[in-house]
Amino acid sequence: MNGAQMKSGKFLTRIAPSTALAAALSLSGCSHHAAAGGDDSADSANAKAEVTLTRVVRTDISQTITLTGNAAALPNQDVRVSSLVAGRIADLKVAEGDRVSAGQLLAKIDDRTYRDQLNQAEAAEAQAKATLENAHLSDARNQDLFKRGIAARKDLEDAETQLHVSEAAESQTKAALEIARRQVERTEILSPLNGIVAKRFVSVGEQVDGTAAQPIVEVASLGEIEFLANAPPAALAKIRAGESVRVTSEALPGKSFPGRVVAVSPSVDPATGVGLVRVRVPNSAGQLRLGLFLTAEIPVETHAHALCVPPDSIYRDDAGEPRVYEVNQDTAKAVPVELGIQTKDLVELKSGVKEGDSVILKGGYGLADTAKVQTVASKPESDSAPGPEPNSKDDSKDAPKDKDDK
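Above: the chain sequence. Below: its structure as tokens.
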């Protein structure tokens, strides 16, 4: 071996330990990372979903139908009062909100023209009476003369004809007089019922034409009101006349009124596919006003002591079938259920669970059929995010200081 080879051998001998050390360090680093990765995988595998629970309870649950409509007066208890004669409004005695009784004077039409016509009819009737009395006397005289052979039969017949004509004329003037009197009476507009003035359509001095097309006031009796609601045929089949309901209005928050179904339409409108339901509500205090939007909840089916859970406890599988997650200790298991009556607060479960079972209320979305869970207390939505745990350490205290800070 020459000198160059010897030198090269020494170099190789010197570099080999360094290469081995580097390889060892590299393997050590790989082992460390692999171990760290294994810990992360183990943590992920052992992670538990946080859920809140509720219990299956027995309670009464009812299926209801919601009906809506506007408050209106009962049939024949809301009248738009018009004048039966044309003329100028001389006086108007009432305004909106006034209480009136049947027969009370509401308005007065200028009656001077009608009184003149009445005077004319009275004079014509007096004249017809005088003519009739004269015809009676003439007929009696001609009968006497005819019996004595002094008057001709023609004179007797003419007297009898005149008597009949006078009687007809007198009857005609009596009828005209009655009409004139009635026209004067019609200049006084009277209330047809006990109630409240809902609306006034004219003012003093305005002209009315004496037809129903131009009302003067609207009077309504509001001791009871009703509203007309539309319902589909399936709902109509479940609603019965006489059923009690609770009626509410957004205009009167926190208040409800007892009512009852008084009629269900036997027919369905072919254009809309719905039928009419009439709901009547006592209104002695007058809180329900005409036109107010009302809502009635009608129970059509009730199940007593049914197994129920909140609607949020119902989850759906990939096929859309309902199920709940029954929780035993820290394990949740999906249980298929059959649903019954459903309301905004409760859902009836016909099968799959029993009373007292704990099921997931929130946190069940995305869970496998069997999963490990961790129960947490439910918190109001308004709660703020939680702060740091009391036992957590401040990393800044344990961090190594810089050499410059020593």
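Residues 61 and 324 are 19 Å apart (CA to CA).
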